[in-house]
Amino acid sequence: MGTPKSTLDPAAAAAPAALATTISLRQPYLLFLGDASHSSRAKTALGVYDWAPEACAAQLRLPDCAVDLGLPELSPAEAAQKGIGSLLIGIAPIGGQFSDGWLPTLFSAVEAGLDIISGLHAKLGDIPGLAEAAKARGVRLIDVRRPPAGLPVGSGRKRRGKRLLTVGTDCALGKKYTALALARALRAQGVAADFRATGQTGIMIAGTGIPLDAVISDFTAGAAECLSPDAAADHWDVVEGQGSLFHPAYAGVTLGLVHGSQPDAMVLCHEPGRTHIWGYPDFPTPTLKVAIEEYERAARLTNPKARVVGIAFNTSMLDEAERARLLADTERELGLPCFDPLKTPLDAVVQRLLSL
Amino acid sequence: MGTPKSTLDPAAAAAPAALATTISLRQPYLLFLGDASHSSRAKTALGVYDWAPEACAAQLRLPDCAVDLGLPELSPAEAAQKGIGSLLIGIAPIGGQFSDGWLPTLFSAVEAGLDIISGLHAKLGDIPGLAEAAKARGVRLIDVRRPPAGLPVGSGRKRRGKRLLTVGTDCALGKKYTALALARALRAQGVAADFRATGQTGIMIAGTGIPLDAVISDFTAGAAECLSPDAAADHWDVVEGQGSLFHPAYAGVTLGLVHGSQPDAMVLCHEPGRTHIWGYPDFPTPTLKVAIEEYERAARLTNPKARVVGIAFNTSMLDEAERARLLADTERELGLPCFDPLKTPLDAVVQRLLSL
């Protein structure tokens, strides 16, 4: 970084990079539920099925499997015949390793011509013989935790189209689901909108994306630029946020994402009662007012019009009366639409977006 | 990042990590000048010799070499006999590749029992046979662009001792030399002080450090924490800055470094006449006043006492009268000691530091 990287012609570099540097998955999926003993172990499959049911064509369960999504049961060969593109490993065992009991299924999938998609810590290419089999059959082994090669340095160039980024007072309080719900609500209004995934489950749902937290720091903003390329003037990219500007470990990732996604609009996510950064008792979460100011200040480096347009609360631990009171009080205090993306309508925030 | 990493006992994790996760080089060096046709090609060797002459015991030149540092000329075998620890590749050919003409020297160095240190883009381990030879001989091939494995996530825990970080209005305007000069000036006053390197040349000078721009973004703050571990209450770590908070590609790296190094003091580096971020004509550099405010705001997340204590100018393109006027005018305007680390005394800023 001491010597700035070449940025001689960022405009010329951006267009092809946007295609080449983003993970791209072959949908629909055959969801592999393996030997999941409980739905908590199949969170990946459940999340993908919840948010992208059209991408989930079938399921494959081993004899001990206690989870059933009610999808057609297909073997890899049957799935390939029906035009399914990939076997998606939908379970997350403790330790993040592949179980020996899965290996016959993984090899059958390759043999049948399916790609294999994994979000586990262990790498598909480390399974003895699988990479060779995949190469011979012409299919891909895709670890969605691994970023694509060749990500560029950020250019700072303003791109066409509109962008929304979900941001947070902390990690792990609903930025992904808020972005998914907003993209869905925009499309329901007839607005062209794409969810842009920055984490592994999001990538599986969208079928494309970049795992931002695994990118080398010099390329974080550039990766965010690749993720939401030039688009039509009235098109919205709804970008999944990561981390928090108030997090002592991850604020840098968040700032790179804010700069690279150059959002026109941000939705601030918060969980009521979260008084401290998760796992960091010495770091209080900011007030909503301070968080709004800081995100707007940060975002205006690459988009002077950036503004927070709404607050998304994760109210899963509140009852209905408490939820209604919180949303009404905060709306009055901050003058912004407030909602819970999984529990209340998004009409007001969508109206606010479309009026920008 | 969606699920926060374990931070159950950050204090317990920090101490051993500080040792295991930092590059450590065996000094003194045999500086390899190769076939350098001009001193501009030997910038690495010149920088290391300028700032760490005590670490440069000898030089090794090929027949065509046009650069001479005036050091004793030793073969790898002679160097090893005299207790030299490493052959340091001090030249940077266009393209960043190893020249075929160097290979006999590199293999001789391994055979003689020297480590080899490189900052080139090409990796030492990719030279056919060299890794095997090094393993057999028990020496190391060290690419200082490659961060150590096992870096932790930032803990945010306040560490003992004092820390100074150099920060900038842009990249490439003197943050490394300012940090080196400050560490040297502190030691000249009898203060215990260490330069902490975050880039490749700095690592070669210090013999230790972490190449921060090559770290995966989730671990940037954690790497900065490892770099300046707990120390005596009156000890100063002087940390080499990277990037700039005002840079559309690198601000995230800078923010992670600011948070992880938790500076008590920052020195702001600027080059007069640099009106825009280098290579980014749409991005103006900030005023010094704005830069001071933004760095202090950012740093106070992990150190509420953080403050800017001086301004370092790169005045290489000014004459003496212009330099004197710039420093005097800026001191009056901002009330902070102003200096050029390579041209003017550092007494005032060192006094300010010691009065904190």
3D structure, described in words:
The structure is a homodimer of 356-residue chains. By secondary structure, chain A is an alpha/beta fold. Chain A folds into two domains: 23-143, NAD(P)-binding Rossmann-like Domain (Rossmann fold, 3-Layer(aba) Sandwich); 162-354, P-loop containing nucleotide triphosphate hydrolases (Rossmann fold), CATH 3.40.50. Chain A is built from twelve helices and 15 strands. The first copy, chain A, has helices at residues 10-20, 43-51, 76-81, 103-112, 130-137, 175-188, 200-206, 220-227, 251-261, 288-299, 320-334, 347-354; strands spanning 23-24, 29-34, 56-61, 86-89, 115-118, 141-143, 162-168, 193-196, 208-209, 236-239, 265-270, 276-277, 280-284, 307-313, 338-339. In chain A, strands 8-10-7-11-14-15 form a six-stranded parallel beta sheet, with helices on both faces. In chain A, strands 3-2-4-5-6 form a five-stranded parallel beta sheet, sandwiched between helices. In chain A, strands 1-9 form a two-stranded antiparallel ribbon. The longest helix of chain A is centred in the last third of the chain and has 15 residues, at 320-334. Chain A starts with 9 loop residues before the first helix and ends with a helix. At the A-B interface, helix 8, helix 9 and strand 13 of A face helix 8, helix 9 and strand 13 of B.
List keywords for this structure.
homodimer; 356 residues; alpha/beta; Rossmann fold; 2 domains; 6-stranded parallel sheet; 5-stranded parallel sheet; 15 strands; globular; disordered N terminus
